[in-house]
Amino acid sequence: MNPSLEKPSPRYQVVIVGGGPSGLLLGSLLHGAGIDALIVEARSPDYVLGRIRAGVLEQGTVDVLTQAGVDARLRAEGLPHDGFALCVDGEVLRIDLNGLTGGKTVTVYGQTEVTRDLMDQRSRFGAASIYEAADVAIGDIDTPHPFVTFVKDGVTHRVSCDIVVGCDGFHGVSRRTVADKGLNTFERTYPFGWLGILADVPPCSHELIYVAHKRGFALCSMRSPHRSRYYIQCDLSDDVRNWSDDRFWDELRRRVGPAVADDVVTGPSIEKSIAPLRSFVAEPLCFGRLFLVGDAAHIVPPTGAKGLNLAVSDVHYLGSALREFFLERSSTGIDHYSARALDRIWKAERFSWSMTTLLHRFDSYTPFEQRMQRAEFALLQSSQAARAVMAENYVGLPL
Ligand code: RFL
Ligand code: PHB
After folding, report:
1. Buried b vs exposed e over 375-387: b needs ≥16 C-beta within 10 Å?
2. Superfamily of segment(s) 11-80+108-187+278-356
3. Cβ < 6 Å from ligand 1: which residues?
4. Model confidence over 289-335: pLDDT tens digits?
5. Ligand 2 center from residue 343 Cα (angstroms)
6. Would you state the CATH architecture of domain 191-277+365-395?
């Protein structure tokens, strides 16, 4: 950085690093409370919208999006789901989310659409966002006046604020900033990935189907009555270029079994990518005036559909803590943010790990561990209490 080029910028109460769903939603909640926040995002809006990720929203997530005033399209176009199917070695078990949780459901609505709704709202509000910011750095977090610097169009900017929030995902700068400040990390990587495909074809079922098969896991999901999202477990070293559409559809059909395979409508993919699976938690989530939120702080394997939902619960907790801080001059909320969020994060980590362990093929598993997988599924088949625990976690633990 050449300090002579540094350009003083207006001061903000909050600088949010990262303009994915966490950063945008926090920006929306703060705007609603009259707290001014700048979003600094490394990529372009189109790049952010091009990432095809989550699809399942918990009721609590829908409630927070409603509170933020971005629920109109979600309510019109989101698909309420009362249950999902588990298919293990050809045996199908329906998890009746509604019946097992006293009437709760989840909503299928793509992360891309949530992000688009939040971006549209932000531009309607005229709230400040910097896209394609390079060399983002965070400083003075141990003082009441931290700052964020970044380069935009060749000019270095320095923005002072009261609070910096790291919403910049797993590979962002925020967590790196505190790596040597007493950050503890807990991690499990899984020896496989998910190969995902998006296609404009009707889904094979009106509910999601999670499949455990000897060739590996598969998931039948959707975005709308005309757009399907499918995943298959693949080798970590695999490359999407090895997977023609035909090869993908053939492998999916083999894993879901003949009954479902007959209903799989194939078509050209409009997106195809491989994602590694990881469980990760950073502790604590607060370092002086820097707070970590969403994927910057934790990662879950996607099997439990929890990543975005967990990011939203962090935002909910931090949003109310920041309202207390700025509007009531109380630091009680921000002092408790880390412990409050981590309590829910660890439970979602447990659920995502247990769903992943139940449904994937682990080449290293001993016959004993394979029997444990089968016993886990047998327990779900025979015990309503076990199904209720799964349902309660899937629809989302209370905020
Ligand atoms: P994001 O979405 O990664 O956004 C972070 C943003 O920060 C920007 N950034 C920076 N900006 C400034 N300076 C820097 N140095 C920066 N470095 C990075 C990035 O460009 C980006 O725009 O994190 P956020 O907002 O915390 O959101 C988290 C969710 O995206 C994630 O948890 C979910 O997508 C996980 N997930 C799912 N979650 C669910 O709740 N339900 C699901 O059904 C579900 N399915 C999934 C998923 C994730 C998947 N993949 C690919 C990992 C399915 C898949 C396949
Ligand atoms: C998705 O539709 O992308 C999706 C659904 C459920 C999951 C993971 C991903 O558990």
Report:
1. eebeebeeeeeeb
2. FAD/NAD(P)-binding domain (3.50.50.60)
3. 17-23, 40-43, 48, 53-56, 111, 133, 136, 167-169, 171-173, 194, 196, 275, 294-295, 302, 305-309, 311
4. 999 999 999 999 999 999 999 999 999 999 999 999 999 999 999 99
5. 23
6. 2-Layer Sandwich (3.30)
| 43 CA: nearest ligand 1 atom | 20
Across-strand partners of 306?
Answer: none
Among protein residues, the one whose CA lies closest to atom 37 of ligand 1? 54
Domain assignments of the chain as residue spans, ordered by start: 11-80+108-187+278-356, 191-277+365-395
Contact 395, 99 (CB under 8 A): no
What is the model's pLDDT at position 1?
Answer: 42
Q: Which residue has the tokens 């060399």?
A: 135
Dihedral (Cα; 142, 144, 145, 149), 10-degree rounding? 40
Q: What is the pLDDT of residue 8?
A: 65
Tokens at residue 395, please?
A: 């629809």
